[in-house]
Each structure stands twice: as structure tokens, then as C-alpha cells.
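Weekly modeling sync, notes
Attendees: S.R. (lead), two postdocs, one rotation student

Agenda item 3: backlog of single-chain predictions. S.R. asked that every request posted to the team notebook include the full sequence so nobody has to chase files. The rotation student volunteered to paste the first one in as an example of the format we agreed on. Action items at the bottom.

Example entry:
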Amino acid sequence: MKTIIKFIPVVGAVALLAACGTTMEQRAATGAIAGAAAGQAIGGNTESTVAGAVLGGAAGAARPD
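Predicted structure, as returned to the notebook:
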């Protein structure tokens, strides 16, 4: 549980900063990549990497133009 508490704000910040692109798909892809990298760095396992990618992709897709 402590890992998730540390994980969510970091992934959100990284995803929003890294989510670049002109279309929603591009922003979701760059957010997912940044989220996966942050998830791996924080959690160090597959579950953290996948969760980071999901959160990063969602944050990138939700970012307005």
C-alpha cells in the first residue's frame, strides 16, 4: 500500500509533463511510456510498470489540447 501511495502522484506528474503530441493517441502513448518508466523505477516489478503505463496513458489522453 505504501508503494501505491508514493506511486500515484509521481506517475501523474511525469505523465502530464511527458504527455506531448497533437492528438489524443499521441498524448496517451507518450504518457504511457513515461508512466511505465516511472512505475519500473518506483516499484521495480512488472505490476508497477503496467500500472504506471495505464495511469500515464489515461492522464495523457485526458490532457486537453
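Discussion: group reviewed the output briefly. Residues 24-43 form the longest helix (20 residues).
Action items: rotation student to repeat for the remaining queue; S.R. to check formatting next week.
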